[in-house]
Design brief:
By secondary structure, the protein is of the alpha+beta class. It has a single domain, classed as Alpha-Beta Plaits (2-Layer Sandwich), CATH 3.30.70. 21% of the residues lie in helices and 39% in strands. The protein has three helices and eight strands. It is globular, with a radius of gyration of 14 Å. The two termini are 28 Å apart.
Length: 127
């Protein structure tokens, strides 16, 4: 089932490199709007507009990339994480699937790491 949005975390990734990759993959991005530490733009994709949020250093050296649309070429966070790693060569982390608050804190700490070593499930305590 296709996720309604995509969120991945990129270790020490350069925002300009990420935008070049997304522009080549999805389409051009509007000018960035900054609000506090958060940067937003909109990608004009063939499938429709995709609101994008970039939060540098969201968790330590990890930057958050959030695409608020189901109209991406990726069915889920993991597919996007693999594409991002292939394009950018930086470690990517994403949730293994949707998380509901009633699942508890332990489930919230389950993540998937995509790196040169491959894909593996890890425990990442972000809070």
């Amino acid at each position: 089932m296709r996720q309604p949005d995509i969120e991945i975390y990129l270790k020490d990734a350069d925002r300009d490199a990420v935008i070049r990759w997304l522009s080549q993959t999805l389409g051009p991005c509007t000018e960035w709007r900054q609000k506090g530490q958060t940067f937003k733009c909109e990608i004009d994709s063939a499938a429709g507009p995709i609101p994008l949020t970039w939060l540098p250093k969201a968790v330590g050296s990890w930057n958050s990339l959030y695409l608020d649309s189901p109209n991406t070429p990726w069915a889920d966070d993991l597919a996007c994480a693999h594409a991002a790693f292939a394009a950018l060569g930086v470690e990517i982390r994403c949730a293994p699937g949707g998380w509901q608050e009633e699942e508890g804190e332990d489930e919230a700490d389950r993540w998937i790491r995509v790196s040169a070593a491959g894909e593996e499930e890890i425990v990442w305590r972000t809070g």
